[in-house]
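Please, structure for the following, as tokens.
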Amino acid sequence: MHPTLRRLAASHNFPAPFSPTGLTGVLTHPLPRTTLIALYTQTLSLLSSLPSTSVYRTSTEALTRKRLAAVESVKPYGWAEYEAKLASIKKRYGLEGAEKKGDVSLAIAAAQMREVIREIKEEVHPEEEAMIKNLEGQEKFWDRVLGDVSTEAAKAADKASKEQLFETLKEIPREPPLSRGQIHQIEEKIAGGLIEEIIHQGMEEIKVIEAMKEYKPWEDLEETAPEGQWVYFERK
């Protein structure tokens, strides 16, 4: 699905959250920039725990840093005012620099996603069963994400408990929305399809890293391969 098909899904400059994207079964993500930055920050954090000699680590780090830079280069309208307000809040709650830590960044995105989803659910007509089911599924997903990272995020943010972290997260304002043109800019820079597809790729990459940490493919085999195991056919 080419990103330009998004233009067929909305006639206004800012696509409505969870509106059609033009790709069957995929709805417009309400916080794409926040979510991508959080996913890429967490990815880099997790990759740092793998051996520096791992080819997977070095190649994935390079790709992730490139994508993170592409996302951060596109700033929504009103960014200067938002950044000033955010800096004041982070200073007040002792969060300066904490958002650069993977667990904290992901916790912020998850908390804000839950808030947006609950707001949208209140506006959805009871007869829109498909939309309600989709929102409930997303709410459960982000609840699970927040639960998974909250303990480490609380430590990273220097909070005494998860509850204290949750109260602090409520004070962090959402970024101004991206316009359709800005979303298209990110899609063009990354060249991975719709921004929603790019977010899905980011989520899947984290699963791959977790699997790598579990199976440790860089370690020697438990049973040494017989001589010639990795020698391919060749003329003798």
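The helical segments are 32-47, 55-72, 79-92, 102-123, 129-156, 162-169, 180-190, 195-215. The longest helix spans residues 129-156.
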